[in-house]
Amino acid sequence: MAFDPGEWARAHPQSSLRLRAPLAPLTTMGVGGPARILAEAGNEEDLRELLALSQTQKWPLFPLGGGSNVVFGDQGFPGLVVRLGAGFAKMTVTGSTLLAGAATLTSSALKLAQSQGLSGLEPLVGLPGSLGGAVSHNAGGRLGDIGQVVNRLRIMLLDGTIRDIPKADLRFAYRKAQLSLEPGVILAVELTLRPESKEIIEARLAESRALRANQPGGRSAGCVFKNPLQPPNLSEADPTWGLRAGELVSAGRLIDLCGLRGRRLGGAQISPQHANFIVNQGGARATEVLALLDEAQRAVRRRFGLELEPEIARPAVPGGGDD
Fold first, then answer.
1. One domain for residues 143 and 125
2. pLDDT computed for residue 233 by the predictor
3. Can you tell me whether residue 23 is helix, strand or coil?
4. Mean pLDDT confidence for 133-162
């Protein structure tokens, strides 16, 4: 049976659905073409029906959070992009536990935790996006990652089944999380924080902000690459590093050593401030952003024999990840 978007929208007044909807305004990079279908689920039942629809219509599915760490291609996304509505952005605090919907902004969760004298989310200060996206990428910084305070996740699998996954069954690693053996959409996050004084929380926030002080402003998708482990030949290339085997190396410095800091292609530029950021300087196309990403990968591979792993998802590219 042919899909009738108007009929679906009338039957689901708490949700929305649009055809050929632009995706660029929904991402922090601000590039990319339209989605074949863009839907915002207002409740769990509507989300369940959207997931079922993607299966029956054989549409590729991409759950979109706050739009950071993702670059859609200029051709857009040829399937269903699903966002969670305001009904998935509620928060409650009980003791030192913060329960938040996956659509909650990381900044909102951090603000609430701070107001309640709860510590543990300070490494997320300055990061855009939603808690669901932060968990799926195990977002954080030098002071820690969100995976360290996640106690439980509520996930809807593609068949509509809702599953609660306890901390013991979650596997967090550097900038990634193994949330379930089956793909699905994060609905809610339970965080176990710790009571702390206002002074200590503010000091940790200040320290986290200082560590991000060299990151550029403007439109970007955040860090382009994960920091890799030190390659064997790095000391010969730059003896001043002084790192031991097994330590992480700054991807930005590797790109800088390849002479690509400030490299510009159309409206996209490898940031002169931090080479692990690609910034939309105005009117950039996804093709230009991704071309700079690929150029940096090739340059680091040639000079150091090292493969940089992208931190951003590329949904229009086969094998693209989630956000």
1. yes
2. 56
3. coil
4. 92
Nearest residue to 32 (alpha-carbon basis) of 22, 42, 40, 18: 22
Q: Is residue 150 part of a domain?
A: yes
Token reading at 272: 């002169």
Contacts of 50 (CB under 8 A, 6+ apart): 15, 39, 41, 80, 82
Residue whose token pair is 């992208």: 310
Cα 300–chain centre separation: 24
130's tokens: 């939603």
Instruction: Mark whether 142 and 30 lie in a shared domain.
Output: no
**pLDDT tens string 199-237:** 999 999 999 999 888 889 889 999 999 998 775 555 544
Q: Give φ, ψ of 264 to 5 degrees.
A: -125, 140
Spell out the residues 6+ positions from residue 78 whose beta carbon is closer than 8 angstroms to its own.
36, 59, 60, 316
pLDDT value of position 9 = 85
Q: What residues make up the domain containing 269? A: 219-304
pLDDT digits (tens, 9 = 90+) for 260-308: 999 999 999 999 999 999 999 999 999 999 999 999 999 999 988 889 9
DSSP H or E run through 164: strand 162-166
- How would residue 317 be classed by pLDDT, with cut points 50, 70 and 90? very low
Only one residue has tokens 């659905």, namely 17
Which amino acid is present at 184?
Answer: G
- Tell me whether residue 3 is in a domain: no
CATH assignment of the domain containing 106: 3.30.465.10
Q: How far is CA 100 from the centre of its chain?
A: 17
Output the domain CATH number for residue 40. Answer: 3.30.43.10
Residues 6+ apart with CB under 8 A from 62: 77, 79, 80, 81, 82, 315, 320, 322, 323
